[in-house]
Design brief:
With 719 residues, the chain is mainly alpha-helical. The chain folds into two domains: 129-184 and 223-304, no CATH class; 309-476 and 501-712, NCX, central ion-binding region (A middle domain of Talin 1), CATH 1.20.1420. The protein is built from 24 helices and 16 strands. The strands form seven sheets. The chain has a three-stranded mixed sheet with strand order 1-2-15, sandwiched between helices. It has a three-stranded antiparallel sheet with strand order 6-3-7, covered by helices on one side. The longest helix has 36 residues, at 503-538. The chain is elongated and about 100 Å long. The N and C termini lie far apart (73 Å). The relative contact order is 0.13.
């Protein structure tokens, strides 16, 4: 400590010393997100991994801040989920598993979930691109439909009040922005609607013509009115269908969800009110506060932040893709002769359906792990963590075995290699690029990344050991050879060469290669378990995870989980079952694509089959990178790659023991070189514990170069 001449400023000196300590840790370790000391402010975002030092605490508390990373969350369940994100072998999940307190949300998010019944002090200009898009997509024909319904109601004479309502709503839905729809109370003196002079309508147009005022006693009930019966039979169903179409279309476009809310609220509230209780005004002509309940008040038709919108904790993209799963299953199993659609369409639908199912499986795993103890979470992650990929691989191998087609086994090997290369190069590289655009330099926990890197080296060496063994001791067999020099002793040009392991009745394979495969398949899961024990038991300090006892103001909330454990378990099982069905459909209809496509089967397996199931994980990694938490972005790719080598491949080998298939743990030279080069490059990039968008660009470019190699490579033998 530096002596202070003032003598009475010990508190400020301690605070500055704490700042210097935490800043030093931030520069040296770059560990797990934003490190540093933060004073507790009421509006600090709740779900942030930080090293917190309370201002009122002593200097000893600050020293604990130096060696541990504090997780601050709204409740214990959310803190448990954040802690699981840093545990090796656990699925990394960005979305909340509990409902966030309303007061802790930003104003942008609050606007997403608010009903369209709030009047702002200053709405600003309503002439925006989104509002013009609404006019072009929905406004003009919806307004025209209201005019037609109004004319129909006027023709019935008895439905004239609803005709006037539809006429006013035609102008409203043509351009609803800057207007308000209210529900007004009918005075007691006017509860009996009789023809008389001086009565005026509650609509925008002023006095109602006498011929429209039909006798309708309110005391007998609104639904007994003759005009209401005509309206419900002729006008209302047509408008419900129109608004339903608008609602579904706007919801699927996501950015136009306010239009979907507008249509849903109009159908359920406005069109079911008596005409005399509906009031339409322009906001500039409205006095604040308004008399009566505000039903609709819309300013913007589009909001780009609706990609954050969630329904019961489920992202809106996953909600919108869920009907695709039902369409895929119905179309795939009902139209098995391909009368309605071809195999290419069904394969594409089945592959796209895997994305939302992967999201639901990830959400269910994260929810169960956050609400359970460590043992249950570890079992659930180990059991269902790789279920998406294994389901597809096993169904493909079964189909290949039944048809006697080796091409399916080669496609599975390509998908395994593509997942490994993509998670080592593309996932962290893309996260570095996107995160580097916002942050000039990002740091990560090099020690935790080193554990994953060591396991990757071990796993890659073990997986490709049988391949290298076969290259050394196998017999090279070529499909066709041509003499280049026309000399029997000259040079020969050979095609479709491979190492034959079945020479001499398969003595080499059954006596040497197959025992080596079984040995590797036992050692790799054992190494994975040792890695779990190392990171989660004996060396937990690598991650420096600590749940803070310092609660921020406003964070004393009980956990309101989106999915309970039983609900998450049911969703997990149903999603796994649907995943199996979609994988079966994908493998059923991939055969025409493999045989008729001009693209190499290597490329199809490495790209489409490998990376589509990993899209939810890629999105999670990008979100972590944008929050300057690159450690989790890197761990997402590393953990998937480690699980491919140490869990998925041994499980496939174990499966072939009980159900013989064409799958052997002998890969092509292209797979071996691409995987080893990717792992070496990744370790070189991650040595110093910091990165920027340039290093991420290098990883992404190398990945695309490897994709180009696979694209121009000839198809594997047997396809």
């Amino acid at each position: 400590k530096v002596p202070d001449s003032r003598g009475d400023s010990d508190g400020p000196r301690r605070g500055s010393l704490c700042d210097r300590h935490c800043a030093a840790i931030n520069n040296v370790q770059g560990d797990l997100g934003d490190l540093g000391c933060h004073l507790h402010r009421p509006r600090v975002p709740p779900v942030v991994s930080t090293s917190s030092c309370c201002q009122q605490h002593s200097e000893e508390v600050c020293e604990s801040c130096v060696v541990k990373t504090t997780l601050t969350a709204e409740n214990a369940v959310e803190a448990n989920k954040l802690s699981n994100n840093y545990k090796f072998g656990f699925k990394k999940w960005k979305s909340h598993v509990t409902a966030r307190p309303w007061e802790d949300r930003s104003e942008i998010v609050k606007e997403l979930y608010s009903d369209l019944n709030v009047i702002r002090g200053s709405g600003g200009s309503t002439l925006t691109c989104g509002n013009v898009l609404y006019l072009l997509l929905f406004g003009w024909w919806l307004s025209f439909l209201y005019i037609l319904v109004a004319a129909m109601m006027f023709i019935t004479v008895i439905g004239a009040p609803y005709g006037q309502l539809c006429w006013d709503l035609a102008g409203y839905f043509l351009w609803p922005f800057g207007k308000v729809i209210q529900k007004v109370e009918v005075p007691k003196s006017h509860q009996v609607c009789e023809a008389g002079v001086g009565e005026s309508s509650a609509l925008l147009r002023g006095p109602t013509p006498l011929r429209w005022r039909l006798r309708c006693w309110v005391g007998t009930g609104y639904w007994h009115c003759a005009s209401t019966a005509v309206w419900l039979c002729l006008g209302y169903p047509v408008l419900v269908l129109a608004h339903g179409l608008v609602c579904v279309t706007a919801w699927l476009l996501i950015v136009l969800i306010p239009v979907a809310k507008l249509s849903a609220r109009a159908t359920s509230r406005v069109l079911l009110l008596p005409p005399e209780r509906v009031l339409i005004r322009r906001l500039k002509m409205t006095e604040v506060p308004l008399e009566g309940e505000v039903i609709l008040c819309c300013y913007r038709a589009a909001n780009p932040y609706y990609y954050k919108y969630a329904v019961d904790g489920i992202n809106v993209f996953a909600v919108n893709l869920l009907p695709l799963v039902l369409v895929t299953l119905v179309l795939g199993y009902v139209d098995s002769p391909n009368h309605l659609t071809g195999s290419a369409v069904k394969f594409t639908l089945a592959l796209l359906s895997i994305m939302p199912l992967s999201y639901y499986i990830g959400m269910a795993i994260a929810s169960i792990s956050a609400q359970s103890n460590f043992a249950v979470g570890a079992v659930v992650n180990a059991t269902f963590g790789s279920i998406t990929e294994l389901t597809f691989y096993i169904t493909a191998l079964i189909k290949g075995s039944r048809e006697g087609n080796r091409c399916y086994a080669e496609v599975v090997k390509s998908a395994l290699t593509g997942t490994l290369v993509g998670c080592v190069l593309f996932v962290p590289g893309l996260c570095m690029v996107i995160g580097g655009i916002r942050h000039q330099e990002q740091r990560f926990n090099s020690r935790s990344a080193g554990v994953s890197s060591a396991l990757l080296f071990l796993s890659v060496g073990g997986v490709f050991a049988p391949t290298l063994f076969s290259k050394v001791y196998g017999k090279l067999v070529c499909g066709e050879c041509h003499n280049v020099t026309q000399n029997p002793l000259g040079h020969y040009l050979c095609h479709n060469c491979h190492f034959d392991l079945m020479d001499n009745n398969g003595t080499l394979y059954y006596s040497h290669v197959q025992p080596l495969v079984y040995t590797v398949s036992i050692l790799l899961p054992a190494a994975y378990l040792i890695g779990l024990f190392f990171t989660l038991k004996t060396h937990t300090h690598i991650y420096d995870i600590h749940i803070s006892d310092c609660h921020m103001p406003g964070h004393h909330h009980s956990a309101v989980v989106h999915w309970s454990r039983w609900r998450a378990l049911v969703i997990l099982l149903l999603s796994t079952l649907c995943m199996s069905a979609c994988a079966d459909l994908a493998t059923e209809h991939i055969s025409p694509i493999l045989t008729n496509s001009t693209i190499s089967q290597y490329f199809i397996g490495v790209t489409v089959l490998a990376m589509v199931p990993e899209l939810p994980e890629i999105v999670n990694g990008i979100q972590f990178a944008l929050q300057n938490n690159l450690s989790l972005s890197i761990e997402i790719g590393n953990c998937i790659a480690v699980q491919v080598c140490m869990l998925q491949i041994p499980i496939l080998v174990l499966f072939t023991i009980f159900y013989p298939t064409n799958f052997t743990l002998v890969f092509s030279d292209l797979h071996v070189y691409a995987s080893m080069f990717s792992v070496v490059l990744m370790n070189y990039i991650f040595m110093d514990g910091k990165c920027d968008y340039f290093q991420g660009t290098v990883l992404v470019m190398v990945y695309f170069i490897l994709l180009a190699v696979y694209f121009f490579a000839p198809s594997p033998s047997g396809c």
